[in-house]
Amino acid sequence: MKSLISAGLLLASGAAFAAPSASLLDEAQQRGTLSVCTTGDYKPYTFLREDGDYEGIDIALAESLARSLGVEVQWVPTTWKTLMPDFLAGKCDMAVGGVSISLERQKRAFFSDPITVDGKIPFVRCDDVDKYQTIAQLNQPSVRLIEPPGGTNEAFVHRELPKAQLELYHDNTVIFRHVAENKADVMITDASEALYQQRNYPTLCAVNPDKPLQYSEKAFLLPRDDSAFKAYVDQWLHLSKATGEYQRIADTWLAKPAQ
Questions:
Q1: Structural contact between residues 57 and 44, judged by C-beta atoms closer than 8 angstroms
Q2: How far is it, in rounded angstroms, from Cα 119 to Cα 212?
Q3: Cα–Cα distances in Å, from 237 out to 64, 66, 110, 169, 233?
Q4: Which of 126, 162, 172, 225 has its CB 3.0 to 4.6 Å from that of 205, i.e. a possible disulfide?
Q5: Where would I find the beta strands (DSSP E) of 113-229?
Q6: What residue range is the signal peptide (predicted)?
Q7: What's the pTM value of the predicted model, to 2 decimals?
Q8: 18-34: per-residue pLDDT in tens?
Q9: What backbone torsions phi and psi does residue 140 show, to the nearest 5 degrees?
Q10: Is 167 in a helix, a strand, or coil?
Q11: What is the distance, to the nearest Å, from the Cα of residue 61 to the centroid of all Cα atoms in its chain?
């Protein structure tokens, strides 16, 4: 009986001090790389240049995170439509590039702490700002919407603006030109993107960027149930904001141009 009790105590002790499950935090450092999915079509967060290099707020942040781990970033191209399937299939360790936090995504993955607060707004020709202030004004059969497929912009339109005409356009880098050229009336997008793009399209205006139609937050998409890696990313993000690194990166893209 005594030996049985001793064996039971050993088993219990072994269970209590079992080695933790493997974490990406350790795996990435061991292999020397951090693979990161990004779409490359969403300024100011991610953009694939003609020379094959990526740039943007989240690109710089991901590179900073990798440096803190002592590893290199391995970029993995994806699209908004295939972002979650690619991520869940294990094609990358994390995903960045203006990824909006949503409950649907949260069901299948973790998010880092929010990087920034954002929200959906209309992006229209400046002459039409007064016409597209509210959901009621936008949700009309005469309104021509244009959106990239597969992301939260399309989901918002299907949910909130079902009566409007919707065109899905696959090239998110030039989609704004269609509104400027009167081939569409409105693009629903995040305030941050509209504020950035109106610098490139002076005839287009962000409608009420301080009062979005839908509250939104952006974060890094992380593997579900990997608490050690999430804790590290969150702490790194906290320190990058506390030291001013995040603000310096964001200002490179979002600061108002000199008059």
A1: yes
A2: 5
A3: 10, 12, 15, 33, 6
A4: 126
A5: 116-125, 144-147, 165-168, 186-190, 204-206, 214-218, 221-222
A6: 1-18
A7: 0.78
A8: 445 689 999 999 999 99
A9: -130, 145
A10: strand
A11: 12
